[in-house]
Automatic annotation (TrEMBL):
Substrate binds at H124, R154, D155, R190, R197, R268, G269, D270, R271, K344. Residues 83-305 form the BPG-independent PGAM N-terminal domain. One of its GO terms (biological process) is glucose catabolic process. InterPro entries: Alkaline_phosphatase_core_sf, BPG-indep_PGM_N, Metalloenzyme, PGAM_B_sf, Pgm_bpd_ind. Pfam families: iPGM_N, Metalloenzyme. It catalyses: (2R)-2-phosphoglycerate = (2R)-3-phosphoglycerate. This is 2,3-bisphosphoglycerate-independent phosphoglycerate mutase. Keywords: Glycolysis, Isomerase, Manganese, Metal-binding. Belongs to the BPG-independent phosphoglycerate mutase family. Mn(2+) 2 binds at D12, S63, D451, H452.
Length: 524
């Protein structure tokens, strides 16, 4: 054991509001955070854009890039940027995988399918990548393209799906002619169909398989009609719209069949892994009954899991994240512990370790099962259970470094419910109150931060100047507190020079371990 011990708390989605619009963080009753703000070393961190390897400072942060940076102390160009570069340089279309999938569909008189999030949120996907790939497919002789559209409303305005559908349909209409036929074939809200993560609910993926592959489900003449009808019937915002199938004369226009090729155009891994497993796995796949699995070639935009090599084929190499904190602590013989509930479990393990799902020998990981509800119904989520577990980990006296994620600010924030999000943030504060007491008793320094904003901006002004509900992350900075019996001083605490990648070096400094030269600087 090191004689210094550290706990790092990630309050997912708890940023610092600039506009005061829908600021659930300030509205919440948070006596512990308020007290810490007065008595502890404190600064703020940049958690979006260039600070986390995204293409521009207009890109909001997200959990993947945030936890990558927190876990490795470095800034890597991320999926959104790497795919842009690969498309611009033409590397994607020269890749063996692109050629193999295209030639497969052409040789079999088959269809090239695209599945993915129809959005320009740049968190999981970007519609511009999709449009370029469709145009390139035509240029290179593909005859038939079908697109299976997952509706966003979580990284972009909550009911903006029609704009993205129109954009895609306009693009396809400009390409369609006697030699080329592109259409939307199926779809649904991203929180209802296909994009489950961390195996929280395989039924979502089963529904995706039935919808996209088998063409089973409620039929509509086109995607706009589907969205309009389903919205009128359910009142749901885009992310929660039910699944739909586009059909002509009762026949689905784009089932996935033998000889076809399939590209999942999402670049982010967490919500892309399960569908990739369903396409890649052989007969040993047991998560749901796929029926007769069509004989297709499948590729993801990126390799989503660098340890399990999911999927087996992909178009763009992922960032090669090296010298992660877990690796360095492992080499130094220090023991780490990671805990969250299902919805964020992979964030503090797989994203944390550079998108790798295998743990180092010195690590222990704990997953607390999440409720399967819309989190405005249970805004406290598993904050109490996570705290109980942290306290147990502290008392075990086994760990030099403990990390955790409280999901509330983010997961409740995404529902758009201000009242519930306030309760979510209050639940985190209560968790901290309990945690800090025991941490102090056992001599831990506690660092408290967040991976990006969300709860801090529950409202926004739309293009017409109207105030609307915001379900997406914010571009705001996030807080960083040091709670310790030891005296630490943050250098230039009043400046805005720090970002998420400065956290890991600060942890190592406290633990008395030298950081690699590739890392950003410590804040103390
Ligand atoms: O829910 C998700 O997939 C994203 C938003 O698209 O949120 P986070 O990055 O916080 O996981
Ligand atoms: Mn997050
Ligand atoms: Mn989020």
């Amino acid at each position: 054991m090191s004689n210094k011990k550290v706990i790092l708390v990630v309050m997912d989605g708890v940023g610092i509001s600039v506009t005061g619009l829908g600021d659930a963080v300030t509205e919440a009753n948070t006596p512990t955070l308020d007290r810490l703000r007065k008595v502890c070393p404190y600064t703020t961190l940049k958690a979006h854009g260039s600070a986390v390897g995204l293409p521009t400072d207009d890109d909001m942060g997200n959990s993947e890039v945030g936890h990558n940076a927190l876990g490795c102390g470095q800034i890597y160009s991320q999926g959104a940027k790497l795919v842009n570069e690969s498309i611009e340089s033409g590397k994607m279309f020269d890749s063996a995988t692109w050629k193999e999938l295209l030639e497969n569909a052409k040789a079999n008189g088959g269809t090239l399918h695209f599945i993915g999030l129809l959005s320009d949120g740049n968190v999981h996907s970007n519609i511009s990548h999709l449009k370029t790939m469709i145009a390139k497919a035509k240029e290179q002789g593909a005859a038939k393209v079908r697109v299976h559209v997952l509706l966003d409303g979580r990284d972009v305005p909550a009911t903006s799906a029609p704009l993205y559908i129109e954009d895609l349909e306009k693009c396809m209409a400009s390409l369609n002619d006697g030699t080329f036929d592109a259409k939307i074939a199926s779809g649904g809200g991203r929180m209802k169909v296909t994009m489950d993560r961390y195996q929280a609910d395989w039924d979502m993926v089963k529904l995706g398989w039935e919808t996209h592959v088998k063409g089973e489900g409620r039929q509509f003449a086109n995607a706009l009609e589907a969205v309009e009808t389903l919205r009128n019937e359910t009142g749901a915002i885009d992310q929660d719209l039910p699944a739909f199938v586009i059909a002509e004369n009762g026949e689905p226009v784009g089932k996935i069949v033998d000889g076809d090729s399939v590209i999942l155009f999402n670049f982010r891994g967490d919500r892309a892994i399960e569908l990739s497993m369903a396409f890649d796995a052989g007969d040993d796949f047991t998560y749901f009954d796929r029926g007769v699995k069509p004989d297709v070639k499948y590729a993801g935009m990126l390799e989503y899991d660098g340890d399990l090599h999911i999927p087996s084929k992909y178009l763009v190499n992922p960032p090669e994240i090296k010298e992660t904190m877990s690796e360095i602590l492992d080499k130094a013989g220090l023991k780490s512990y990671a805990v969250s509930e299902t919805q964020k479990y992979g964030h503090v393990t797989y994203f944390w370790n550079g998108n790798r799902s295998e743990k180092f020998a010195s690590e222990e990981w704990k997953e607390i099962p999440s409720d399967r509800v819309s989190f405005d119904q249970r805004p406290w989520m598993k904050s109490a259970e996570i705290t109980d577990d942290l306290i147990e980990a502290i008392k075990s006296e086994k760990f030099d470094f403990i990390r955790c994620n409280y999901p509330n600010g983010d997961m409740v924030g995404h529902t758009g419910s201000m009242d519930a999000t306030i309760i979510g943030v209050e639940s985190v504060d209560l968790g901290l109150t309990r945690l800090l007491k025991v941490a102090e008793e056992y001599g831990y320094t506690v660092l408290i931060t967040a991976d990006h904003g969300n709860a801090d901006e529950m409202l926004e002004k739309n293009k017409k100047g109207e105030i609307t509900v915001r379900t997406a992350h914010s571009l705001n900075r996030v807080p960083f507190y040091i709670v310790s019996k030891d005296k630490y001083e943050i250098k230039d605490a009043d400046s805005t020079k720090y970002g998420l990648a400065n956290v890991a070096p600060t942890v190592l400094k406290i633990l008395g371990i030298e950081a690699p030269a590739s890392w950003e600087e410590s804040m103390i």
